[in-house]
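Dear Dr. H.,

I hope your travels went smoothly. While you were away I took the liberty of generating a structure for the chain from your last submission, since the lab meeting agenda had it listed for discussion. I wanted you to have the full record in hand beforehand rather than looking at slides cold. The sequence, exactly as received, is reproduced here:
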Amino acid sequence: MSALSKITQAKLDQAKPDQKKLAYSDDYVEYCRETARHIKSRHDLALRGRNLQALTRLIHERIVEAVGLAVGDDLVDIGCGDGTLLAMAEHLGTHTALGLLATEEEVAVLRRSGLNVKQGFTDRLPVSDESASVVVCNNVLLVVPREKIPASWREIYRIAKPGARIFIGEIPFVPNPAPDPRFDTRRETLSYLYRTHGFRTWFGMLRRMAYWTLTGELPIIRDGTAISFYAQPEEFIPMAEAAGLQLVRYWRHDNPNTRNNYLFRKPD
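The corresponding predicted structure, in token form, is as follows:
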């Protein structure tokens, strides 16, 4: 163990007994808010892990190709992450490019980069009727509660112009893998993380725990990986059709390969 790790562990050992207890939350919005507060780079908002800008760009290059994004398009990117697609749209010369994020904290990060972003949820989009020629919602609906999916489809239909292309990406067709076990104490959690995920994950959690101790914040571990919604194509496609959209095609996502990408259009 490094000298820094020993010092950090010592601070944890000095914590009051009630500070050593851990709480857990599956609130995805709070997870996004906490991420935005502590990011080192706006690219962390992609929520794919650190230093994966190249992967994020590759995914969005494929989305641009799938929807045929072009000069003059009006793009709405629901759950725009780190703003990669918005920046690409501006470079292409789209007429407008608007991104939506779950929290004002995330919005503030991207606005500092000069991007056009608003706060909004999938079932309550702050966008005018029939204003988007392209709608993208990638790696988003999987964290939306199932009961809000029909309203989300209706909102996508509402904001889409007649003839609009609509990309819905990374929809799982199997349940989420079993989550990591949850422990009551910090020591048990750290021991498990070190054994299972290695030094980097262990040390990242150690630093978070030290921060909680120094600031007096409640020690809450927020899970950003929990999947709320998944569906086989036979279930998912009729949901879109019920909202008035037409399927163009769907295909298997590369990684993870337990998800599908879908391209729809709004009838003229």
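Two observations you may find useful: The CA atoms of residues 62 and 68 lie 10 Å apart. The beta strands are 23-25, 74-78, 96-101, 117-119, 132-138, 160-172, 220-222, 246-252, 259-265.

With kind regards,
E. W.
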